Amino acid sequence: MTGSLSTRNGLWYCVLYYKTIDGQHKQKWISTGLKERGNKKEAQFILQQKLEEYSHLENEERLIDKPITKNNEGKTYWLDWLQNYITDIKDSLSPHVYHIYSGTYMRIFRLFWGNANPYLEDLQTEDIIKFYDYLKNERKVKNLTVKHYSNVIRPAIKRAYKEKRLKENIYDFVPTIKREKSKVSFYDQTELEQLFKAIKGEKIELPVKMLASYGFRRSELIGLRWEAIDFINKTITINHKVLVSEKEVFLSDTLKTASSARTLPLMPDIEKDLLTWKKQIHKNQEYWGKSYNNAYLNYVFVHETGDLMYPDYLSHAFQKVLKKNNLRHIRLHDLRHSCASLLLAKGIPMKEIQDWLGHSDYNVTANTYSHLDFSAKIQSAEKISAALGSKTKNPTEEKLKELETKMKEMGISSIDDLLSLLKK
Which of 98, 187, 274, 384 gives 191 a disulfide partner, CB atoms 3.0 to 4.6 angstroms apart? Predict the structure, then answer.
């Protein structure tokens, strides 16, 4: 696969060139959201990212366009069964999830089974295990992603068993997919201060500051609308999200969990930056005139032309800033972890952090960040020490008593008198 940059309506576009499995040459145009003037280097960076992101198109698309079919009366093909199952449950899925199931997942299913597309009635447990091994070993995905694929395969097989298309539920014999305990990466306070200095003046300065300050998810930040910011009562409410999959935008008031909907205080610095950002949007609207995209007028984070800032754009631009300033590599999502670690370092209880981040379950917060909560360990040690009757004195307490004794010897009765004496 190769690619180049091109301009259209004053914006940079990535043009990807690839060949399908049957030898057809195709192009895919992807907007960078960047204005032509002064942004060529940044557009080149995005082009390299898109070449990696869409590398799967090479030699795959033919399988998607023309699924392999066979004829054998009375039997159903496994891939057809999967496709029909996804179609049947469409109404129970969000548009975004259905798009992933019917698009990305079915593409991978066809890529793996391909010409060997088995009959449903002949499907074996080993076929499912081999597919999961393919995901992990060939496509290098984590167990969490494998579990997502199992959310389609497992119920599809269960339905086949209930409808007596299978003699037994072959999924019962598939080993449990254990989720890896992810290592949490984050910036400490010093690193965040360095990041804020490095990102000063960058286009993504405000989004990054808000991600680090509030611990928002990318979809929550991109879904932030002006109506959710109350400049009078100084609050900011998360009640909407935006997801993007293969250039298709999904807007939804249904958040990840019910607890994700939350209202937080509007920080003074963030308020000031938001008002400045809003003024700049009005200037952009006047500058671009009829060329301005009015589809996202209510959304906070848009490009100069009014196009929505896609999550991937933020991630790519963030990595570029880190690399340019020799800052330690973390993911954009790790700013959420950085926010949590900073709250823990300041002694904020885990329950309050759960509410701040919008976790549905306290255990999610505790399991993710408990190893960072050293203050809780100190409190536990002090309580154990007190319970066991330890006679070890608090160093600070000892110094205060020593100071009090010396003050009495000098005839000083209060701290105010001591401070007055020291000023002389």
Answer: 187
Quick: pLDDT tens for 369-392. Answer: 655 544 555 554 555 556 565 554
Lowest mean pLDDT among 206-220, 295-309, 363-377, 406-420: 363-377
| pLDDT at position 221 | 95
Rounded distance between C-alpha atoms, residue 353 and residue 349, angstroms: 7
Q: What is the DSSP letter of 225?
A: B
pLDDT digits (tens, 9 = 90+) for 69-101: 445 556 899 999 999 999 999 989 888 899 899
Instruction: State the Cα–Cα distance between residues 173 and 129, nearest whole angstrom.
Output: 10
203 Cβ partners below 8 Å, 6+ apart?
317
The rounded distance, in Å, linking the Cα atoms of 176 and 156 is 17
What 3-state class would DSSP assign to 152? helix
Q: Among positive and negative, which fits the CA dihedral 32, 102, 2, 333? A: positive
Cβ contact 17:31 at 8 Å: no
25 membership: H or E segment, kind and range: strand 25-35
What is the Cα–Cα distance from 340 to 350, expressed in whole angstroms?
9
Domain covering 189-374: architecture: Orthogonal Bundle (1.10)
Neighbours of 58 (CB within 10 A): 15
